[in-house]
Structure to design on (896 residues):
């Protein structure tokens, strides 16, 4: 009488397994029509907003894979001709330069290039800027006044700043700022600045976390990008109510404007759709998502205004850096050597 | 008496015994009707048949063992490839020293606290007249249903400034002490009170009895549990990122995100593997060779429960505090975020999709890991020996490797050598199988041990093929154990983060990875539904674990 219990228990387990598998498999494998595959190192929410709006307009499905700038760039280099990616979107330019250096990009269509000013694309036209972001020093308004703010990013290396500022060194954002510093001031200055940074700064994971820490009074300021502040202000504002934004301007390395890039892989099987996507991103549709959405990144296309809440790019007096010259591998090595990674 | 489920599980071994008896009667009847010689012949035939599967099972177990050595072999290979100069430059640097100190401090501070807490809680629930002991016992296991990184999410939401070593120790103890509580409580239930009686009769006071008679007998449980906690501390990623405490796992992921599979990441992984091996070695040394067993006939009676008297209030206060910190904090935080988010955050297309994919990965991974562990479990029960111990060691080591190390190894191997397998379900499942092999062994081994080989022999003597015999006897008896193994692995996969992040095919998003990307943007509100769904999935599995531990203790 008791045997059927164990038999039915076993049967129930097996039944459960086989009932679940097809359901799960159908969900997991409902990827027959995945359209173009985008390696998205941009914020997930922005990537999703772009993909949804694009699919709605063109009917071309987009599958996003989430990762970080340098992770994807190195990954694409290793995947080579076998890369499953059609499009690569980054937060910053150094990762684009790395992939381009390996010769893995398909040239961007001329009409797409024509939509974006030359400042926001590499001279060879192998990839294109799709958005931009400005470096800022986000500081605690209750502790610092304008006269006490650093005049230059390099000032943060001063011993007087020990224990007072934060950054997210593992993030592509910060690494892009360092690569700009390297391009503008050379290896020696950069190395000594990184060594001083190791002494002075507090590490956080992610720019939003760093800003949250400044707001909570844990540190006095953080080197981040501008839009974390505006994004939080647009939501509840609870992570930025004590925050003030300091733009370094004067073409300081700390005024660096980083270009988020988009590129099509030479290995892509869907080049036509990929070109359509990039054209849309840099056209009215994609730039409208930047202007009207919650990302608060700058638009880069001709005649497309940025979100009205932002300080206009033209007022930032940022340094001119050729995006193709940003050397990411060198930066990672230098940061590893400085003990930041 | 209490809820139905533990009773069902408690009944299962008895079920097994009944069928064993029936089968024995059956075979006895079969044998007695034959002459002496034909019985011998029958047994010889059965044995001859039984030998065939052993060979194949050994071959399969050997294959699984070889594959499970892949991550270790890979780390060694990369170290050689990197060259001594580069390797030395990447290993012997200040940053690695910092990480080593962080990791060592974390282990040294967390494990003793977890031991003291677990022993105290287990003693109170198992050996005293604590009111509601069954409830408190369940609440001491329940934190396992909350993934470690959800614990830290709850704490960081509540105390935003929480960070560094003290925070790491606090959240680690809360998230992982049940791994110690479970074996210690099970061992306490199993102890023969006669030893304590003898100690008391020799004039020791209750405290002396505890420290000199009870505690030494808990040594194996404490060592095993501490090892498990220690390995989790090395492997955990999300918990420490959220509270800003750098360990090797977080540093490896940082490197991975900065340079994919670069030499620096792999060298850090090598140091992390060395830490794991060191921990295993320390445990072996502390455990020693001594065994505690009851000699002679007779059965141990259940121990009397000690009256707490005036200590009842502080004892209850301890349990209430622990439950409030470990269950209350996640509950309050999640409820708060859910309340703030309202109905909008339940995007059924997104949450439902992640839920479906998580279940698929968990169940399929659970079944695969159980199948992969079966040959080894079979050998360890039916044909223990030197070869089997070597295989077992391979299984065990791979299970002690952090997910980030296994994932990094598989990323590099697939992208460099077998690109078609890169970013496929095959690789992801391989990672899950490797990471959770030891978990799959747990239920399998005990349940196979409950199904005596004589049954199979009898079935074969009665004309079944070996496969039929196994299917009709052992597999049926082992079904509950197989289910437990699958569930344990599924629980692990549901809460797994790093390997899924690094290896999953494009388009796959589990509850854990979705939760992670949302919390990375500090969108705590939108992340809440995913955390809730992970807890919902984990609860029944945790309950299974709880009842299983009571079952092995014979209650």
């Amino acid at each position: 009488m008791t045997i059927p219990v164990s038999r039915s228990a076993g049967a129930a387990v097996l039944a459960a397994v086989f009932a679940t598998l097809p359901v799960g498999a159908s969900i997991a494998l409902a990827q027959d029509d995945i359209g173009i595959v985008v390696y998205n190192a941009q914020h997930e929410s922005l990537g999703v907003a772009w993909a949804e709006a694009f699919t709605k307009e063109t009917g071309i499905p987009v599958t996003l894979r989430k990762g970080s700038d340098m992770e994807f760039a190195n990954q694409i280099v290793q995947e080579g001709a076998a890369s499953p990616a059609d499009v690569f979107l980054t937060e910053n330019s150094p990762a684009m330069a790395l992939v381009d250096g390996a010769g893995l990009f398909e040239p961007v269509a001329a009409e797409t290039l024509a939509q974006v000013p030359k400042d926001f694309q590499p001279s060879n036209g192998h990839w294109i800027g799709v958005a931009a972001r400005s470096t800022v020093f986000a500081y605690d308004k209750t502790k610092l006044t304008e006269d006490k703010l650093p005049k230059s990013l390099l000032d943060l290396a001063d011993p007087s700043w020990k224990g007072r500022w934060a950054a997210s060194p593992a993030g592509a954002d910060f690494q892009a700022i360092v690569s700009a510093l390297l391009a503008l001031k050379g290896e020696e200055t950069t190395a000594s600045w990184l060594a001083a940074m190791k002494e002075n700064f507090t590490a956080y994971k992610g720019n939003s976390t760093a800003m949250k820490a400044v707001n909570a009074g844990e540190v006095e300021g953080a080197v981040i990008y501008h839009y974390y502040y505006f994004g939080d202000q647009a939501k509840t504002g609870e992570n930025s109510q004590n925050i003030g934004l300091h733009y370094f301007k004067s073409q300081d390395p700390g005024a660096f404007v980083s270009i988020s890039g988009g590129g099509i892989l030479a290995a892509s099987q869907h080049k036509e759709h990929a070109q359509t996507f990039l054209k849309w991103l840099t056209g009215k549709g994609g730039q409208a998502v930047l202007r009207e959405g919650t990302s608060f990144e700058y638009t880069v296309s001709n005649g497309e205004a940025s979100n009205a809440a932002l300080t206009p790019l033209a007022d930032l007096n940022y340094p001119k850096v050729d995006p193709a010259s940003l050397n990411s591998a060198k930066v990672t090595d230098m940061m590893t050597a400085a003990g930041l990674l | 008496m209490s809820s139905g489920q533990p009773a069902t599980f408690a009944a299962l071994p008895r079920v097994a015994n009944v069928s064993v008896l029936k089968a024995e009667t059956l075979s006895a009847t079969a044998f007695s009707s034959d002459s002496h010689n034909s019985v011998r012949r029958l047994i010889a035939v059965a044995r001859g048949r039984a030998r065939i599967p052993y060979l194949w099972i050994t071959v399969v177990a050997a294959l699984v063992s070889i594959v499970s050595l892949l991550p270790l072999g890979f780390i060694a290979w990369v170290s050689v490839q990197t060259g001594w100069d580069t390797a030395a430059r990447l290993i012997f640097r200040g940053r690695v020293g910092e990480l080593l100190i962080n990791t060592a401090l974390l282990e040294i501070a967390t494990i003793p606290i977890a031991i003291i807490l677990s022993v105290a809680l287990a003693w109170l629930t198992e050996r005293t007249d604590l009111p509601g002991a069954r409830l408190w016992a369940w609440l001491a296991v329940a934190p396992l249903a909350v993934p470690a990184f959800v614990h830290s999410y709850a704490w960081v939401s509540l105390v935003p400034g929480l960070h560094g070593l003290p925070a790491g120790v606090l959240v680690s103890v809360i998230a992982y002490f049940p791994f110690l509580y479970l074996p210690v409580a099970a061992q306490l239930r199993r102890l023969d009170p006669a030893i304590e009686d003898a100690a008391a009769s020799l004039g020791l006071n209750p405290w002396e009895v505890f420290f000199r008679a009870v505690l030494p007998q808990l040594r194996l449980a404490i060592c095993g549990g501490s090892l498990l906690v220690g390995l989790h501390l090395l492997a955990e990623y999300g918990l420490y990122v959220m509270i800003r405490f750098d360990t090797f796992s977080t540093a490896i992921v940082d490197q991975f995100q900065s340079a994919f599979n670069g030499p620096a990441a792999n060298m850090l992984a090598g140091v992390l593997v060395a830490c794991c091996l060191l921990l295993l070695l320390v445990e072996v040394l502390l455990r020693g060779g001594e065994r505690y067993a009851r000699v002679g006939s007779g059965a141990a009676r259940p121990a009397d429960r000690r009256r707490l008297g005036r200590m009842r209030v502080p004892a209850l206060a301890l349990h209430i505090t622990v439950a409030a910190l470990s269950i209350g904090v996640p509950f309050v935080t999640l409820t708060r975020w859910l309340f703030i988010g309202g109905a909008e955050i339940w995007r059924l297309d997104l949450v439902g999709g992640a839920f479906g994919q998580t279940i698929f990965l968990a169940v399929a991974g659970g079944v695969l890991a159980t199948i992969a562990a079966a040959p080894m479990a079979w050998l360890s029960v039916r044909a223990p020996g030197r070869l089997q111990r070597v295989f077992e060691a391979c299984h065990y080591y791979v299970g002690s490797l952090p997910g980030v190390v296994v994932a990094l190894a598989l990323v590099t191997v697939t992208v460099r050598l077998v690109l078609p397998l890169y970013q496929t379900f095959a690789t992801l499942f391989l990672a899950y199988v490797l990471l959770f092999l030891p978990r799959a062994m747990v239920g399998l081994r005990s349940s196979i041990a409950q199904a005596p080989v004589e049954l199979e022999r009898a079935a074969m003597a009665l004309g079944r093929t070996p496969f039929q015999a196994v299917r009709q006897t052992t597999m049926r008896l082992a079904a509950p154990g197989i289910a437990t193994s699958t569930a344990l692995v599924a629980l692990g996969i549901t809460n797994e983060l790093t390997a899924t992040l690094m290896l999953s095919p494009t388009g796959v998003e589990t509850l854990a990875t979705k939760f992670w990307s949302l919390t990375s943007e500090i969108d705590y509100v939108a992340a809440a539904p995913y955390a809730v769904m992970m807890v919902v999935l984990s609860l029944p599995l945790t309950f299974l674990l709880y009842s299983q531990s009571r079952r092995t203790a014979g209650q």
Summary: Residues 1-11, 26-31 of chain A have pLDDT under 50 and may be disordered.
